[in-house]
Amino acid sequence: MADFIDAFVIGEAEEVALELLGSFEECKRSKVSKQETLLKLSQIPGVYVPSLYDIIYAQGGSITRIIPAMQDVPPFVIKRIVPILPPHPTHLIVPNIETVHDRLSIEIMRGCTRGCRFCHAGIVNRPVRQRPVSEILQIIEDGLASTGYEEIGLLSLSSSDHTQILELTRAVYEKFHDRRIFVSLPSLRIASFSVELMDELRDLRPGGGFTLAPEAASPRMQAIINKPLDNTVIEETVRMIFEHGWLSLKLYYMIGLPGETLEDVQAIVDAGKRVLAIGRQIRGNRVRVHLSVGNFIPKPHTPFQWYPLNSMDELQTKLDLLKTGVYRTGIKLSYNIPETTLLEAWLSRGDRRLGRVIHRAWQLGAKFDAWGENDNMPFWRQAFTDCGLDPDFYAYRQRAVEETLPWDHIHTGVTKKHLLRELEFSQAGKTSPDCRQQCYACGILNTFGDKRPVSPLVYWGCP
Ligand code: SF4
After folding, report:
1. Contact between 417 and 323 (Cβ < 8 Å)
2. Ligand 1 centroid, distance to 252 Cα (angstroms)
3. Which one, 306, 332, 359, 361, has the greatest CB density within 10 A?
4. Sign of the alpha-carbon dihedral angle for 114, 120, 125, 126
5. CA–CA distance, 341 with 336 (Å, rounded to integer)
6. What is the pTM of this model?
7. How many angstroms does the Cα of residue 439 sit away from the middle of ligand 1?
8. Residue 112 pLDDT > 60, yes or no?
9. Which atom of ligand 1 is the closest one to the Cα of 128?
10. Is the residue at 348 inside a domain?
11. What's the CA angle centered on 216, arms 212 and 221, to 5 degrees?
12. Residue 255 lies inside a defined structural domain of this protein
């Protein structure tokens, strides 16, 4: 892809946009060449100009080095961040057809301190920065007035970790309960506190289900991914959800995680059955339990970036086990098709040579790949062949920790040393608690320390 795009902004574009446009305008005015313009843009921190980096490949196809092609080009592109979240847009385009997430979506917090080891967003969006309650209320007020929406979503990677979340939900209720708007509060932690939060909003959103994301069901896998959950807490939370009136509960899990066995997958089925039994005990047969199972893809910039993807056969065996396990239990199961996962893995783990593959696949007819009725895989395989590349090299290869990865010159602020430490902890079955309790010096403060004093502690989560 990088072959086809002249310049990217890495990180939060809010801060870079004006600099970028100013610089571009100046180049246009002084009529400098495209090459000179790109060189100038590459000097702006956070702007990545792929053509100004040379990639040196080893014989087997892996990368040996990524080096600036010219003297003034920085060796790493460090992502940009804003110390305080900028004003939230409130005058939005309202679609005149029904769309997914057709509501006023408000980002209440950015980043996450939980450190789940599979999570790309949790790493690349560090540090945590949150909006104060008064600002969020104003955004809701202005956004509803300008769009006419009757539903809002209070979004973040882990909403119950907003330090003023209870105050926020109470204030939202007080201010908007007579307008009968719907409020969704996704990404809640598995804890009774989350049920209390949803209770605060209860009158605002009649009906609706409750969603939790344990991601793994066995204690062993939970330690590996760094999302430990006490079974008693899970059961207590589930009990509370049904006792407080909800009838439907959706649980997100993943399969294909590093070191996963069939017992770990069976544990997902067992967890679903336990939840259903608790629900039925409290609310009878009207209770609905939905297991939504995604296939894990090792993502760049995470502690799991070196792992291979599970083979299609392995994923299929695990899916078959889930399907058999929930058969005739009343549990709804949804899952991803393994081949779609494979395509996603190529795209998320590839290097710049993948740009040619994407272009070729498109020429051959690959369009709307996510639509179930389109079987585009033959086009993709043909495209790899035409470009002289091996698809398995990208998806199924365990990468050595010494290997230069295609994204190593893009710096998120979190160091490779931190990722490796988390990888080692994972392999030893050790967990790392929330970094709001204990800072692990992941690199964020070293990289962005100069911005830290601008932001009061209540807005920026690092110590
Ligand atoms: S610097 Fe410390 S507190 Fe901040 S994100 Fe990194 S580990 Fe967490």
Report:
1. no
2. 26
3. 361
4. positive
5. 7
6. 0.92
7. 5
8. yes
9. 5
10. no
11. 150
12. no
- What is the predicted pLDDT for the residue at 457? 65
Q: Is residue 310 part of a domain?
A: no
Pair 16, 101 in one domain? no
- Judge if 146 and 37 occupy the same domain: no
Atom of ligand 1 nearest to the CA of 444: 1
Output the ligand 1 site: residues, CB below 6 A: 113, 126-127, 435, 439-440, 442, 444-445, 462-463
| 103 and 172 assigned to the same domain | yes
Q: From CA 253, how far away is CA 417, in angstroms rounded? A: 28
Specify the number of domains making up the chain.
2
Closest-CA residue to 190 (of 224, 160, 156): 160
Residue ranges making up the domain that contains 66: 2-78
Residue 162 in contact with residue 201, Cβ under 8 Å?
no
Residue 2: which of 36, 51, 47 has the closest Cα?
51
Domain with residue 95: its CATH number is 3.30.750.210
For the CA of 463, the closest atom of ligand 1 is: 3
How far is 315 from 388, CA to CA, in rounded Å? 27
Instruction: Write the pLDDT tens digit of every residue in 279-317.
Output: 999 999 999 999 999 999 999 999 999 999 999 999 999
φ, ψ of residue 420 to 5 degrees: the values are: -65, -40
Q: What is the mean pLDDT of residues 19-24?
A: 88
